[in-house]
């Protein structure tokens, strides 16, 4: 049996500057020795969304102190590490560059391997931080930047079953909140107001539900809600009703597509089914209970990582590094890796059938 593996993970692809030190035992069990997540929400809130230049600068200001604090909290020296893993895409490229270059510099100075990690692989493996969660499983990743179904059959074995063709679900929440001026990030604000609202008051669209397949779309919903805001002088109750109607539309779209995704997944893998939901939108209680009902009806178990590991964090990046190290996939080429603003998990599917943004830079998601 080999020794435990100790990895420093760094995450800077959006608006969280995060670091974590994690130990993975040969049996796959994981101990997080220390982790820090510094959110930049206050810096972006005045703009109602993440501003890439502000994010990159804020990461550059704070990354070294976040990493130093995490190493100290975990009583780990660079010399104790087996490798340094950093998100190297996809994401806002300025932030990705900051985290990746910091990781490379530390790796070079400490003479350790640098492990470039796909942020989406981090999310895909995140349930394994707290739970053995054996492969295979079906992942629904719903965050501010991503909304996709991925069949996870093993480390590095990801098949995209469906994806949004425009906005991510979290982005849709953020855009409604911006239109209503109720705060950023939008999801928690919309969820709070929706509690006192009537979800049946506004008949909002459920895009792509009447079409077969697992792709999703949320841009039309955003436009429909913006028209209502423009046309009606909404009072407090009206705002709550719109939030409730909007949330119900997203919950219904996600749960119906999840029902279909489970059928497709189970057709290929008829054993015990695990449905993992990750990403910030997984924090939404009404979406979570809708997904739970769908999972139960399909005889599947719903696994949602604890909230701090559902949203962006570095423990999932360190775990992806540790799993890669344990599988013998880490070599000395990491330092030469170029950051990738777009880096689909399922490259073959993204090339053959880009869900959106197929343009000259390649598939976006
Ligand atoms: O995973 P995450 O922290 O960052 C990435 O986008 O990668 O997800 C943030 C997103 C935001 O769009 C936020 O509005 C949404 O997750 N979100 C929620 C809730 N909490 C966060 N959406 C709906 N309901 C919530 N309670
Ligand atoms: Zn993320």
SSE topology sketch:
Layout: E1 5-11, E2 16-24, E3 30-39, H1 41-44, H2 52-73, E4 83-87, H3 93-110, E5 114-117, H4 119-125, E6 137-142, E7 147-154, E8 157-163, H5 169-180, H6 186-194, H7 219-231, H8 236-268, E9 273-278, H9 285-297, E10 300-303, H10 307-310, H11 315-326, H12 347-352
Parallel strand pairs: 1-4, 4-5, 6-9, 9-10
Antiparallel strand pairs: 1-2, 2-3, 6-7, 7-8
Helix pairs in contact: 2-3, 4-11, 5-6, 5-7, 5-8, 6-8, 8-9
Bound molecules: 5'-O-[(R)-(carboxyoxy)(hydroxy)phosphoryl]adenosine and zinc ion (ZN).
Describe this structure in words.
There is one protein chain. By secondary structure, this protein is of the alpha/beta class. The chain folds into two domains: 5-127 and 309-352, Nucleotidyltransferase, domain 5, CATH 3.30.420; 134-304, ATPase, nucleotide binding domain (Nucleotidyltransferase, domain 5). It has helices spanning 41-44, 52-73, 93-110, 119-125, 169-180, 186-194, 219-231, 236-268, 285-297, 307-310, 315-326, 347-352, and strands at 5-11, 16-24, 30-39, 83-87, 114-117, 137-142, 147-154, 157-163, 273-278, 300-303. A five-stranded mixed beta sheet has the order 3-2-1-4-5, sandwiched between helices. Helix 5 (169-180) runs parallel beside helix 7 and helix 8 (236-268) packs parallel to helix 9 (285-297). The longest helix has 33 residues, at 236-268. It binds 5'-O-[(R)-(carboxyoxy)(hydroxy)phosphoryl]adenosine and zinc ion. 5'-O-[(R)-(carboxyoxy)(hydroxy)phosphoryl]adenosine binds at residues 14, 143-145, 170-171, 173-174, 185-188, 191, 279-281, 283-284, 311-312.
């Amino acid at each position: 049996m080999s020794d435990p593996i100790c990895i420093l993970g760094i995450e800077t692809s959006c608006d969280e500057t995060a670091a974590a030190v994690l130990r993975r035992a040969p049996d796959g069990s994981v101990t997080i020795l220390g982790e820090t997540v510094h959110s930049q929400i206050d810096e972006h809130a005045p703009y109602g969304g993440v501003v890439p230049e502000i994010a990159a600068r804020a990461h550059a200001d704070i990354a070294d102190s976040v990493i130093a604090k995490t190493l100290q909290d975990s009583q780990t020296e660079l010399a104790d590490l087996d490798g340094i893993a950093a998100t190297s895409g996809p994401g806002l490229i300025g932030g990705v560059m900051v985290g990746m270059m910091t990781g490379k510099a530390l790796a070079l100075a400490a003479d350790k391997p640098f492990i470039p990690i796909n942020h989406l692989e981090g999310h895909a493996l995140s349930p394994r931080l707290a739970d053995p969660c054996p492969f295979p499983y079906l992942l629904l990743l719903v965050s501010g930047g991503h909304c996709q179904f991925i069949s996870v059959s093993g480390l590095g074995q990801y098949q995209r079953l469906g994806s949004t063709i425009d906005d991510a679900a979290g982005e849709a929440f953020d855009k409604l909140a911006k239109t209503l001026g109720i705060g950023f990030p939008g999801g928690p604000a919309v969820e709070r107001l929706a509690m006192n609202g009537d979800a049946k008051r506004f008949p909002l669209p459920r895009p792509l539900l009447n079409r077969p397949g697992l792709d999703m779309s949320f841009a039309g919903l955003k436009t429909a809600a913006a028209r209502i805001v423009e046309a009606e002088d909404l009072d407090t109750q009206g705002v709550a009703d719109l939030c409730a109607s909007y949330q119900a539309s997203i919950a219904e779209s996600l749960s119906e597509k999840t029902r279909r995704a489970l059928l497709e997944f189970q057709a290929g893998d008829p054993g015990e089914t695990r449905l993992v939901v990750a990403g910030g939108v997984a924090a939404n209680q009404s979406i979570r209970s809708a997904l739970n009902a769908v999972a139960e009806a399909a005889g599947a178990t719903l696994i949602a990582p604890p909230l701090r590991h559902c949203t962006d964090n570095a423990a999932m990046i360190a775990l992806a590094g540790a799993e890669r190290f344990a599988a013998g996939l880490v070599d000395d080429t990491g330092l030469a890796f170029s950051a990738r603003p777009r880096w689909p998990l399922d490259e073959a599917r993204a090339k053959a059938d880009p869900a959106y943004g197929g343009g000259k830079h390649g598939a976006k998601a």
